[in-house]
């Protein structure tokens, strides 16, 4: 188990070792250093709202392409992507880009929209992103990466922190590791306020395990600099194990939060020394799905909300006793009136649903 993983030691000892103190990312204070990570197609305004309601101390927007941010402000869709409300703070906006000339105006647009932090993504492993010389591709280009960060830091107002998301390298080679370390050390020298590191390589994408050892080694180098860890965080206990193993200052929860805002509630409880809360009942799951739908309808409008919520509902279905049947039922929804039928069938107000035929 990972060499530094602590799952066999037990929850009580791990909780005692894990560090969950408030952190300051530049001028932005985060009371509970557990965040909803930036995920394209997922961490939109409704999802961020739910994560905050369940205890996330910080959230990030979907990963936004710099050119898209500049252009979207000219159309009616801007509110969907750039919406920030009072309950959202503190909230960061994550940017994808490789050219300072387009990243800088995009960052200024996001600051004007109300985001508290600008986070630059040098870690996305998606092929269509990497093939266009963005995201994880930048990990092989230290000079170019640091040029973008330097231009951004000079252009942003001093109170707005600049942060960085990366992976542990393009691949497993020593040369790749050295390039990442050069970017990290250069970023801190430029005044980057925090770095999030995912323990997989770009080539791994989402396969294999996340190297928590690399995160630990990076934190040893970081000293007092703020470092968030990410990768293989499926439960609240996983988050505590990573913190205990790596001594990172906080965690970014990504796929483990999809359809599972309860992970933030559970982590708050464990961090406070309480037993883990019981899993959400079907009635509690239904309430959250309905609340998510209400927020999505408010954000996108009725027609768009239906298609967006199909994706989210399929994620929620993973927690149901009959996940495959419920996932299939959500996947076939096409009209708002069908939602009530599915919820009544699979999430009855009382009792337990009949098994699928």
Short description:
This protein has 357 residues and is of the alpha/beta class. It has helices spanning 11-17, 45-53, 66-72, 78-82, 100-113, 127-130, 142-155, 174-190, 212-222, 236-246, 262-271, 282-300, 302-316, 323-331, 336-346, and strands at residues 23-25, 28-30, 34-36, 58-65, 91-96, 117-122, 162-167, 194-198, 226-230, 250-253.
Keyphrases for this structure?
single chain; 357 residues; alpha/beta; TIM Barrel; 2 domains; eight-stranded parallel β-barrel; two-stranded antiparallel sheet; 15 helices; 10 strands
Give a structural overview.
- The chain has 357 residues and is of the alpha/beta class.
- It has two domains: 11-271, Aldolase class I (TIM Barrel), CATH 3.20.20.70; 282-346.
- It contains 15 helices and ten strands.
- The protein has helices at residues 11-17, 45-53, 66-72, 78-82, 100-113, 127-130, 142-155, 174-190, 212-222, 236-246, 262-271, 282-300, 302-316, 323-331, 336-346, and strands at 23-25, 28-30, 34-36, 58-65, 91-96, 117-122, 162-167, 194-198, 226-230, 250-253.
- An eight-stranded parallel β-barrel has the order 3-4-5-6-7-8-9-10, surrounded by seven helices.
- Strand 7 (162-167), helix 8 and strand 8 form a beta-alpha-beta unit.
- The chain is globular, with a radius of gyration of 20 Å.
- The two termini are 40 Å apart.
- Mean pLDDT is 90; it is low at 5-17.
